[in-house]
Amino acid sequence: MERTWKRPGTPHHNHRHTERDNRWLEPAAGARWGEVSEAGRGLDCSVGVMAYNEQANIAAALDSILRQEPAAGRVAELIVVASGCEDKTAAIVADVGCTDRRVRLIEQQRREGKASAINLFIGAARSPVLVMVGADVLVQDGTLDALLRHFEDPAVGMVGGHPTPVNAEATFLGHAAHLQWRLHDRIARRSPKLGEIVAFRNVVPSIPLDTAVDEISIQALISQLGYRLVYETQALVYNRGPATVPDFLRQRRRIYAGHMRVREQQGYSAPTMSPFQVARALRGSGSFATPRAAMWSVGTIGLEAAARALGAYDVMRRRSSPVWEISDTTKDHIADGANGQAQHTVAVFHIVDFHRKQLEMGLHASRQLTRRTADHLKRALGSAAIVTIQQGGTVIALLPGDREAAERTACELVQRFEASPLPVHDHGVTAQITLACGIIAFPQAGPPLAESIPIPALEAGPAASVAV
Asked: In angstroms, rounded to a whole number, what is the distance separating the alpha carbons of residues 345 and 343?
C-alpha cells in the first residue's frame, strides 16, 4: 500500500513512499549512525508528529518544536504524518512548511492507526535520533536540549520527558489528570516509564501495527537491544487530560489493554502496571492532604480500577483495533491552558495603616483582622491560589495565570474590601480596612513584570502600594 509524502509549499517535488517491511533501516546517504551534525553541534534529530484532526493545536505544537534551539543537537527535519484528516490539519502544516523548509508532510488518505503513522515516520526519518511528539501537546523551551544531551552517552537508547496536564485542578477530573501524571512522574523517577514525548536512537525498524501504546512498544524494543532508558524531568511537555468520565474511562481502558498486549506479545511490562509501584507512588504524593482531595483521589482510583477491569476484559475477548475512538475533550486548545500553567503571578496585599490599627485594636485583634483578611482573599481567589500570612498586616497570594487576569481580580478585591467592613471576630465587631496591592508576574520569557493597584479611597492623592 502506497502513501504520498511531500514537502509543503513545493508540490512539484512530490515523491512516492512505500511502507517498508520489518528490516533494519539503513542510514541516509552520506550519514552514519551517531554522526555529529555540522560545526560540532551534536546529534541531528528528526521530529515526528502524528496527527488526526488536530487543527485546534497543530500550529502551536509545531511552533513549540521549531523554535527550539538545542545546544546538544539540531532539529534537522520535522515530519508530520496526517492520517485521514478531515479538517484543516494538513493545510495548516503546509502553510508552516512554506516558511520553514525543515517541515515535511506525509498524508495518509485514510486513517490506519497511530502505529501505522509512526512506521511511516520511522521509514522516512534520516537522522540518528528520532523524537516523537503528539500533535496535541506543547513542548516547553529547552525540552529538546534536555532530551538530546543524554545521547552523548552511547549506552542510552531512549529518553522520555515529563508530561504536565493543563487541566484546572479545582475540578474532579482535573484532579484526576494531575494525580495520574503526578504518579507517573514519581514512578518514572525510579523505573523509567516514557511517554508523550520520547527520543530514541534510530535503530527500531517498525512497531507492531496493532499496538495502542506506541511509546511502550518502542521502549520494549530499545530495552531488548541492550540500551539504557532515561526519564528526564526537565523535558517538559504540556497535555490535556480527559474532562468527562466517559473520555477518562475510554482512554485509560485502551491504554491498560495496550500494556497487557505488550506484556503478552513483547514480554515487557510497563512499571505503571505494578499495583505495588502505584501504591508506593501514592504514599507521600499529597493526594490525601485535604478531605476533598482524599475524596477525589479515592474516586480517581475507582475509575482507574474500572478502566483496568474493562481493559482486561477487552484483552480476554481479543478485542483489538489499531484505530481507536478519540477522546474529544483531550483535544481542546492546549496553548491557553499551557500559558496559564507556565505563568504565575504574585499578589501582595497590605492593610493600609496597619500599625495604627494595631495600636487602636491591640495585638491580638489586629492579628485576627489579618487572618480574617486572608480567609476572605482565599475564598475569593479559589482553591487554585496559595495564600499565606506575613507579619505587619501583609498577605501574599500565588496565582496561576497571566498578569492581566491577576490585576483584574486584585482590583475587584481591593474595591470589595473598601465597600464593606470586615468582621474582626465572632462577637459582631467589624473594622473598615483599605487594601493596597502590588503585582509581580513571572512570564515564560523576559524579566518579571511589576505593577501596583491604586487604593480606591485615595485616588485623589498619591497611590499607595506595596514596594516589590
From this structure: 7
Q: Phi, psi (5° rounding) for residue 450?
A: -110, 145
Please, how many CA atoms are within 13 Å of residue 462, restricted to the half-sphere of its CB? Answer: 3
SS3 138: strand
Separation CA 132–CA 79 (nearest Å):
10
In the chain, where are the structural domains located? Answer: 2-338, 343-458
pLDDT at res. 402:
62
With 0-12 / 13-18 / 19 or more C-beta atoms within 10 angstroms meaning exposed / middle / buried, residue 283 is: exposed
Selecting from 3.90.550.10, 3.90.1150.100, 2.60.40.10, 3.90.1150.10, what CATH number does the domain 2-338 have? 3.90.550.10
366, 323 Cβ separation under 8 angstroms? no
How far is Cα 285 from Cα 183, in angstroms, rounded to an integer?
Answer: 8
Topology of domain 343-458, per CATH?
Alpha-Beta Plaits (3.30.70)
10-residue averages of pLDDT along the chain (468 residues): 42 36 34 41 88 89 92 94 92 94 94 91 96 90 94 96 86 91 93 94 92 92 96 91 91 92 91 92 82 92 95 86 60 55 77 85 84 86 79 86 73 82 67 85 57 54 37
Q: What is the per-residue pLDDT for 277?
A: 92
Which has the closest alpha carbon to 135: 223, 62, 208, 227? 62
pLDDT of residue 332: 59
Whole-number pLDDT of residue 40: 42
DSSP one-letter code for 38? G
CA distances, 192 to each of 131, 187, 404 (Å) = 17, 7, 39
Dig out the grid coordinates for 60 from the structure: 502551536
Query: Which of 69, 118, 126, 281 lies closest to 188, judged by CA?
Result: 281
Chain centroid offset of residue 305 CA? 24
